[in-house]
Design a protein that fits this description.
alpha/beta, 17% strand, three-stranded antiparallel β-sheet
């Protein structure tokens, strides 16, 4: 009886290992790491890159990508529900208060500050950031920009305050966070009413930008990100933030300190990849997902193979 039980356990163990190997391309030998990401195009892309890279280096990477908006993913890593996800340096202004706002507008200073504070207060390690600013922005339809001579947020304030027809599609996070839409309104001197907002639960700019491009429910503007690749194809124009209200948002892998100490090789695996993710590269890859309809994992894998990070 004992022999049969042992044989059954051994068979089940072999099946589990074999399944993990089939999913990741290599037998896991380094333990389990739970990978999360935000629920948007770039979050899915970067999260899948990390899953694929870790599996290729022998980890059992559990895929929890596109988990939710910033507050959900942030709570997940602090509570230990996930171990690793791509965050943005500028969110240090949202996570930590009482810091000179100018710091977050300098890429090097902002990164150094959030790295220091997150480690000391939350036991979270920030790895190497990508050299791309995926900051918050407002984009308008090209026909509106042309007709009303809109090229900056100052122009938008003039147009809105004169009673111009305007409706913005944005996520709840964009609308409610004090460092995003309220900060734009305060700096440029305009206020949007509830009737001028189409608030979506998702933070995916593919949805907000499509709503503007299709004029859904009268929408003619959208929440956008700096690395979005679909803006030109959708006929949208990003309005310049001439007062530099928004921080610099460079995507960076962040990992729980306990996991990093256990598996310091994570840095050597991920850092070279993120160093090569320029603004133009991310725009191109994001467009493959948002415009061409490719799966995030397929785009991530093709890029990693083309750069020699995967076979």
């Amino acid at each position: 009886m004992k022999k049969r039980s042992f044989a059954l356990v051994a068979a089940l163990l072999a099946l589990a290992v074999g399944s993990a190997w089939a999913a990741g391309g290599q037998e896991p030998t380094r333990g389990t790491i739970i990978v999360g990401s935000k629920i948007d195009t770039e979050g899915g892309l970067l999260g899948e890159m990390m899953v694929l890279l870790l599996r290729a280096h022998g980890f059992n990477a559990v895929d929890k990508t596109e988990l939710g908006p910033t507050d959900v993913v942030r709570k997940a890593i602090i509570s230990g529900e996930i171990d690793l996800y791509p965050e943005y340096t500028g969110n240090g202004a949202f996570f930590f208060h009482g810091i000179d706002p100018a710091i977050w507008k300098d890429p090097a200073k902002g990164y150094a500050m959030v790295k220091k504070l997150d480690l000391s207060q939350n036991g979270i390690v920030w790895l190497t950031p990508a050299p791309a600013n995926n900051t918050w922005a407002i984009a308008v339809r090209r026909d509106l920009a042309t007709e009303q001579h809109l090229s900056s947020l100052e122009d938008l304030a003039r147009y809105v305050n004169a009673g111009g027809r305007f409706k913005l599609a944005a996520s709840d996070e964009f609308v409610s966070r004090p460092d995003v839409l309220p900060a734009f309104e305060k700096a440029y001197g305009f206020t949007l009413s509830k009737s001028q907002l189409l608030v979506l639960s998702s933070g995916n700019t593919a949805q907000t930008e499509k709503a503007a491009a299709d004029a859904t429910d009268g929408v003619n503007a959208a929440m956008a990100y700096g690395t979005d690749g679909q803006l030109a194809a959708l006929g949208l124009v990003v309005l310049a933030d001439t007062k530099e209200v928004e921080p610099v948002y460079e995507p960076t892998p962040i990992v729980r300190e306990a996991i990093y100490k256990k598996y310091p090789a994570i840095a050597a695996i991920l850092d070279p990849v993120f160093k090569g993710l320029t603004l133009e590269t991310l725009q191109r890859l994001n467009a493959k997902i948002a415009i061409e309809g490719q799966e995030a994992r397929s785009v991530a894998k093709a890029y990693l193979v083309s750069q020699g990070f995967l076979k």
